[in-house]
Write a structure and sequence with these properties.
This protein is mostly helical. It contains 5 helices and no strands.
Length: 124
């Protein structure tokens, strides 16, 4: 059970970080009231370079990233389905199987009771 809990914790932490990153990049930095102040604060905090590009992202990047990830995910699923179809051997034909034997259960001969046409006594 420890492995599943570890994966669950990792997914929880990554989802929380994505939530914070998108809130920072799309809600706080793009807000007309306090976005310019937050942007100038982040520019002063991070020197020019990769850190500034990561922590002060362009809003277009934040919109394009989930679209790109969705396209990649759909393509990977399609590739997986195709790979599975290519590498899975064909099923055995059912021609060798005798369906007639399975359909016909061995039935016991029915015993017929003689029918009497005489009226039974005691019944009216």
């Amino acid at each position: 059970m420890g492995k599943e809990k570890g994966f669950g914790a990792l997914i929880l932490i990554l989802a929380f970080l994505v939530l914070i990153y998108y809130t920072w990049g799309l809600v706080i930095l793009q807000n007309p009231w306090f976005g310019p102040a937050a942007t100038s604060w982040a520019y002063g905090l991070f020197p020019p370079g990769i850190l500034r590009d990561i922590f002060v992202p362009d809003w277009r990047f934040l919109v394009m990233l989930p679209i790109w990830l969705a396209v990649v995910l759909i393509a990977v699923i399609g590739m997986w389905i195709g790979w599975t179809m290519v590498t899975t051997p064909a099923p055995e034909p059912l021609e060798d199987f005798d369906f007639e034997e399975e359909k016909k259960p061995e039935a016991k001969p029915e015993e017929k009771k003689p029918e009497s046409k005489a009226p039974q006594k005691g019944k009216s």
